[in-house]
Amino acid sequence: MKELLETAQSLWMQCLVEVHDEAELETAVEVGAEIIGINNRDLHTFTTDLAVTQRLAPLVPRGKVLVSESGIFTRDDLRLLSRSRVNAVLVGEALVTAPDVGAKVRELTGQRQTGSVLSGSGMIRVKICGIGTPEDACVAAEAGADFIGMVFVPERHRRIAPDAAKEIVAAVRELDGPSPQMVGLFADQSLEEVNDTVAHCGLDAVQLCGKESVEYTAAVDCQVIKVVHVPASYRAPDDVPQLAERVAQYADDGCLVTLDRLVEGIQGGTGQSFNLDVAASLAHRGGDFLLAGGLTPANVGRIISAVRALGCRRIQRHRDPWQEGPPQNSAVHQQRQRYRRRPHRLGLAARGKSEYN
Ligand SMILES: O=C(O)c1ccccc1NCC(=O)[C@H](O)[C@H](O)COP(=O)(O)O
After folding, report:
1. Distance 107 CA to ligand 1 centre (A)
2. Which CATH class is domain 2-104?
3. Among the atoms of ligand 1, which is closest to the Cα of residue 129?
4. How many other CB atoms sit within 10 Å of the CB of residue 239?
5. Which atom of ligand 1 is nearest to the CA of 149?
6. Is there an atom of ligand 1 within 6 Å of 347 CB?
7. Does the structure's ipTM exceed the value 0.90?
8. CATH 3.20.20.70 fits 115-348, yes or no
């Protein structure tokens, strides 16, 4: 297996190494597999059980890409798996037996058939934050939000109680069709409080808006969105490597990163943005992040275009010291260039519904 992995790597390919029990997982880790697939199907009996992922996922070392494979049919299955910090899923039977494959993919990925321009392409994901009532949550969900955020940060005016959040989660889940991921926002609170709130409300993810460490994020019982605050003084390209390093620390550990404006003493919801050249520069390196801070109906379209356009233009015009590597025109170089010109996935986080009225 080691030899196969090395050969694949030398050909610039990645291997998905599949396991079904503890012993196979141990071997996969020992030989240095970076992408580990947990097969929920027992290949002797062909029965599937997502409990296999739930049992093995905590044994996968941090930093590996974890794929849960087989036996995945519904969005609830995905919700369950997201609590095991799965990075990706492999779906077969649910798609080949679906009468409308496109509709099934949309259902599983939580996209809406008639989604907005922003979410319709599947490239931009939208998070609506600071929701405080089931009615507002349902408006956001029906408008196509991908994530709905509820604030649990002490002393913030949009803070809601866990019981109120639980009702909001239930109301959204009762809606027909795919539902957004329900996210709880916290800042420098105890792990016990975060995990208890996740369990109590049935949250899909948490957004950590304080100075939480990578180790802290690893101990949270569900998917994590980590906010990385960007000082107003940051400029591209000078400050981008430093920012990219901070982002990578969390992203490499499986967090989705949100970039938001740094305002000392306030963890979010400031209504202020940062220099978008910095976000564009980070995006063109292939970073997958949510962009937050000062987004309004008046500026959001322009910001999306600006960040994407700047990101793409720079790939072509400027040599990027970060991407120094194989000599120009080598096969590896050409492959990298192709990869980098793929459109970037960029998410946007916006404040509660009042700004959208
Ligand atoms: O929004 C809040 O009230 C809030 C309180 C405490 C910590 C974080 C908070 N919000 C985080 C978000 O995701 C906001 O949407 C993000 O900071 C952007 O806010 P804004 O600039 O006001 O659009």
Report:
1. 28
2. alpha beta
3. 15
4. 17
5. 13
6. no
7. no
8. yes
Phi first, then psi, for residue 13 (nearest 5°) are: -115, 160
Residues 6+ apart with CB under 8 A from 298: none
Q: Quote the pTM value.
A: 0.65
- Look at the block and give the residue holding tokens 């039977």: 93
- Span(s) in the chain for CATH 3.20.20.70: 2-104, 115-348
Report d(CA 274, CA 234) in Å as an integer. 8
Q: Which atom of ligand 1 is nearest to the CA of 355?
A: 23
Radius of gyration of the chain (CA): 21
The residue whose CB lies within 8 Å of the most ligand 1 atoms, and thus the one to mutate among 351, 354, 356, is: 351
Residue 271: how many CB atoms within 10 A of its CB? 12
Determine contact, residues 320/314, Cβ cutoff 8 Å: yes
With a 6 A CB cut-off, is 187 part of the ligand 1 pocket? yes
Our CA angle for 255, 16, 290, nearest 5°, is 20
CB 313 within 8 A of CB 248: no
Atom 7 of ligand 1: nearest residue by CA position: 268
CA-CA-CA-CA torsion sign (350, 189, 85, 168): negative
What is the distance between the alpha carbons of residues 261 and 189, in angstroms, rounded to a whole number?
A: 20
Alpha carbon 161 to its chain's center: 25
Probe ligand 1: pick from 127, 147, 185, 194, max atoms within 8 Å of CB? 185
Residue 155 phi/psi, 5° resolution? 65, 15
d(CA 169, CA 160) in angstroms, rounded, equals: 13
* Amino acid (1-letter code) at residue 138: C
Per-residue pLDDT tens for 61-99? 987 889 999 999 998 898 888 878 788 999 999 999 998
Q: What is the DSSP string of 227-259?
A: EEEE-TT--TTTTHHHHHHHHHHHHTTTPEEEE
CA 124 – ligand 1 centroid, Å: 19
Each residue of 236-282: pLDDT tens digit?
999 999 999 999 999 888 888 999 999 999 999 899 999 999 998 88
